[in-house]
Design brief:
The protein is α/β, with parallel strands linked by helices. The protein contains 27 helices and 19 strands. It has a 5-stranded parallel β-sheet, covered by helices on one side. It has a 4-stranded parallel β-sheet with strand order 16-17-18-19. Strands 1-6 form a two-stranded parallel ribbon. It is globular, with a radius of gyration of 28 Å.
Length: 742
């Protein structure tokens, strides 16, 4: 589980030389800045003028002769994307575990125990020696150990001289020295012709530089190992936090762990008091206005009329489309596809060989770690929807309890009959009692009827098939202001706190139908004190503009963007204008984009596409269009909030669950990490890029099994073996789980 949670370190390097990329792809933005601390506003104090400390701009891509060629290839890739799913063969996976008889299993377990016992005894004998001489081991990029090294022996420090950090690494280092390592030597270790290797390396480096540029612009993370490698290519200086090198670090065999101090806190201290009571920052003087789908910050109203924007970093639409065309052409390049597939196969084989050689030793090392197993290692569920965070039994018990306790409480307003209904009247209208209802009657579990039927899956959110019960129990904006939903979330949070080692990031919905949604959501969280030290929030934006436009709720796509992002800019400018929202945003970590990705997209995002204010058609904008304008607004918002000393947000969309492969191109460019990513199994170039850039992928095999991909064909084991950063997530426990631990 720790390997799944943390991923494998990148050990693959590419030989490349691309000096001409610097002027096109370098981000002219200094990431080091001073945070501006807010002060509480006093009576009669006029707002201060907003003057950002950072003067960075987004350097636009310089056009080259190949841009038109890339655009044409990208167009062909898009046209072929809808038929590729039926044309591409899926990777085949061998049987995971051979059948063993009981005697073989008992023998293997006994061998593990004997090895662990021998290791502990050896460490105790080793500890009795006053001083020993050993050879130092250098940690190199390939992580190989030279057993025949002629390095001079160095003395081992006395146990009393070891620091606690040294002691904490003893058992791991000692067993690590016994691991068998594989090293491949020779001038050509890739199995690819030199010319193809040089061309593939250059283009892969270009793709990594593109991602680094967009991650840096939105203050999102980028792996330090990859960053240090890219600096050797473009000759740019490293950031201060990346200058520490571990290549020459000397590692010694350490001594056994000493007993843990009793006063050392294992768990972080619990929050006391009201977590939503924090100081309100003072207002600053500036103007906000939506311009071509992106909220802009102006110094004054006159500057707004003259379009004199404060110099906050933001992306350029033309440069984004040019960069996306480069990546689209890259994934269609034959030699690069062959190169990426061979490298991925090599990584997978290397992992299997490591497992074959060191499986017993890893199991023995695992047994020597005190007070740690699957249940008490720290786990974070980074992909779970709040409306389905409870399991079926939990929801059933809660509904029965409410029927008994609050039967005469008004909980629902019937719009047809225009009258209030008590909880008893609601269930009487359905012909149900607390005795009649059970798990089967609740009917929220996803079965085989939901496979490739996203509409039927969404209907499973309705208990007993009734939307009114969904509104009563798992909505935040109902007649009761989400009281029951808040109580369920708090009960789930209490279960997480009781388990001590489980954490979750729950997704709440903002639809963009009106500008009051943020205030309603924040009021729900603050008024009901929906908080837990083990819970943080993400906001998901459903891609449903076509439905809102058809029903006359919105007139253009720009209105939807305004309803989503303008309240966030307003509360950053003046927290007292939305005090509850200001408090709620402190526990918000990012944004998600959700909907059925298998919907056909007949529209391509190009320079000819209308701006959001002019998108008045009833057709839904394409996936890349949604992601680009969410990202663009987040860039300006994050820099605006950073200037105010507030927390920033990341983009973590659903991506690659179904539909065309080019969704993963947009995710690679703009998202810090993604959810699902199943389609990477059909795109070796993108899969290799996700590995090199160490893009996090939250995978949900149980969810995929009910919607798009059978469980035995899920690529999670293969992604893990190849070194992609993958994690297990639950997605929708209400639909897929029968117990707390499924």
């Amino acid at each position: 589980m720790e390997q799944i949670a943390n991923g494998l370190h990148m050990s693959d390097t590419v030989d490349a030389s691309s000096q001409n990329l610097r002027s096109n792809l370098r981000l002219g933005l200094d990431t080091e800045c001073d945070e501006v601390a807010g002060e509480e506003r006093s009576e009669g104090t006029s707002p201060s003028t907003f003057s950002p400390s950072r003067k960075g701009t987004f350097l636009k891509k310089q056009h080259t002769l190949k841009d038109q060629e890339y655009a044409e290839i990208a167009r062909q890739v898009f046209e072929n994307s809808r038929v590729e799913e039926s044309r591409c063969a899926n990777y085949e996976f061998p049987e995971e575990i051979p059948i063993e008889n009981q005697q073989e299993i008992k023998t293997a377990v006994q061998r593990h125990l004997n090895y662990a016992s021998a290791t502990v005894k050896a460490s105790r004998v080793f500890c009795t020696c006053s001083r020993e001489t050993i050879r130092p081991r250098k940690r190199t990029r390939s992580h190989t150990v030279d057993a025949d090294s002629e390095d001079a022996a160095l003395p081992v420090p006395e146990p009393a001289q070891l620091t606690r950090s040294d002691e904490n690494m003893q058992i791991h280092k000692q067993i690590d020295m016994d691991f068998q390592r594989v090293s491949i030597s020779g001038e050509d270790t890739s199995g690819v012709p030199v010319d193809d290797l040089r061309d593939a390396s250059s283009l892969l480096v270009q793709a990594l530089l593109i991602r680094e540029k967009y991650m840096k612009l939105n203050l999102q993370s980028f792996p330090k190992t990859t960053k240090r490698f890219l600096r050797t290519v473009d000759d740019e200086p490293l950031d201060e936090e990346d200058t520490t090198s571990h290549d020459d670090e000397v590692v010694y065999v350490c001594f056994p762990l000493s007993p843990r101090r009793k006063d050392h806190p294992i768990h972080p201290p619990a929050t006391k008091g009201n977590p939503f009571q924090n100081p309100i920052l003072s207002e600053i003087c500036c103007e906000l206005k939506m311009v071509e789908g992106v909220v802009q910050v102006f110094e004054s109203a006159s500057c707004s009329e003259q379009q004199e924007v404060i110099n906050l970093p933001q992306p350029d639409r033309e440069s984004f489309l040019a960069d996306m065309n480069i990546l689209m052409a890259l994934i269609a390049n034959g030699p690069i596809k062959s190169f990426a597939y061979r490298r991925l196969s090599y990584l997978s084989s290397r992992f299997q060989l490591h497992s074959l050689l060191n499986e017993m030793k890893e199991l023995a090392a695992q047994k020597t770690v005190p007070h740690r197993d699957f249940y008490n290692i720290r786990k974070v569920d980074t992909h779970v929807h709040a409306a389905s965070c409870m399991n079926q039994k939990h929801l059933l018990r809660f509904i029965k309890k409410m029927i008994k306790q609050d039967s005469e409480k008004f909980v629902y307003f019937d719009k047809k009959e225009k009258r209030m209904m008590t909880l008893k009247e609601v269930f009487d209208s359905l012909g149900l009692t607390a005795y009649d209802i059970n798990i089967d009657t609740l009917d929220v579990h996803a079965d085989r009827n939901t496979f490739h039927r996203f509409d039927k899956f969404n209907s499973k959110y309705n208990p007993v098939g009734e939307s009114k019960l969904r509104e009563i129990f798992i909505k935040t904006d109902n007649y009761m202001n989400g009281e029951y939903f808040a109580r369920i979330i708090k009960e789930v949070g209490a279960d997480l706190e009781e388990s001590k080692y489980q954490n979750a990031e729950y997704r709440l919905s903002i639809y963009g139908r009106n500008s009051d949604e943020w205030d309603q959501l924040a009021k729900w969280a603050v008024s009901h004190q929906v908080y837990s030290d083990n819970i943080r929030w993400l906001v998901q934006i459903p891609r449903l503009f076509d439905i809102y436009r058809s029903n006359g709720i919105l007139s253009n796509f720009g209105e939807m963007l305004t309803n989503i992002f303008m309240p966030l800019f307003e509360v950053t400018k003046d927290p007292s204008s939305h005090p509850e929202l200001h408090q709620f945003l402190q526990f918000l970590t990012g944004f998600d984009s959700v909907d059925d990705e298998s919907k056909p997209e007949d529209i391509v995002f190009t320079m000819d596409s209308p701006t959001p204010e002019k998108w008045e058609a009833t057709e839904n904008p394409p996936y890349a269009y949604y992601l680009y304008y969410m990202y663009s607004n987040l860039v300006v918002l994050n820099h605006f909030r950073q200037e105010r000393g507030l927390n920033t947000f990341v983009l973590r969309p659903h991506c690659g669950e179904a539909g065309p492969v080019h969704h993963l191109v947009s995710g690679f460019m703009l998202a810090e990490n993604i959810s699902h990513g199943l389609l990477l199994r059909k795109a070796p170039v993108l899969q290799y890029l996700y590995y090199l850039a160490q893009v996090g992928i939250a995978m949900s095999p149980l969810s995929n099994n009910s919607l798009f991909l059978n469980y035995h064909r899920n690529p999670l084991p293969e992604f893990l073996a190849r070194g992609l950063v993958v994690s297990l997530s639950t997605d929708d426990p209400l639909q897929f789980h029968f117990t707390k631990v499924s």
